[in-house]
Amino acid sequence: MANGKIVYPSGDAAAITYTFVKNYDYKPDLGDIEVHDNQRSFDGTLNSFAGATKKSFELAFSYTLKAQFDLFRNLYRFHCAIDLYLDGDSGSPDAVVYMMTAPRGGPEPAFSSPGVPTYSFSVRFEEV
Fold first, then answer.
1. What is the pLDDT along the chain (128 residues), one digit of tens a residue?
2. Residue 9 and which of 1, 15, 39, 92 are 20 to 30 A apart at CA?
């Protein structure tokens, strides 16, 4: 499996890099979020102008160790901009994102060895 990578906070000289095993199921769920600018005229008419389109990323992980689950929970608490690399070897990030949801999921039956709990969870990122 290839690796993914996150760098946080984005653009900081003392940024922390975390490389994770890209063990999410199948592929990331990529989407677009349309951002509209709505304005109301003096006569009450509502005008809507097409705005930018932002990317969204939903990553579902399976059979991860508790350390990876805890890292993503802490990233949600920091709420800082993150450089997201879906391919850890690429030279530029796929997007600068915020983590929009706390990791949803929890422990599952041990996969790697007995007595070592593994976690299954999903996270959602949106482009800044």
1. 468 889 998 888 889 998 887 665 545 666 667 666 677 778 878 777 766 778 888 888 888 888 889 999 999 998 899 999 988 777 889 899 999 999 988 888 766 567 778 888 888 888 88
2. 1
Helices (H), ranges, the chain: 66-78
Tell me how many helices (H) and strands (E) the chain has.
1, 8
The alpha carbon of 82 is separated from its chain's Cα centroid by a whole number of angstroms, namely: 8
Look-up of token digits 């790697």: 112
Question: Is residue 97 within 8 Å of 20, Cβ to Cβ?
Answer: no
How far is residue 77 CA from its own chain's centroid? 13
Domain residue spans of the chain: 3-127
pTM (two decimals): 0.75
Q: Name the nearest CA neighbour of 97 among 85, 86, 79, 81.
A: 81
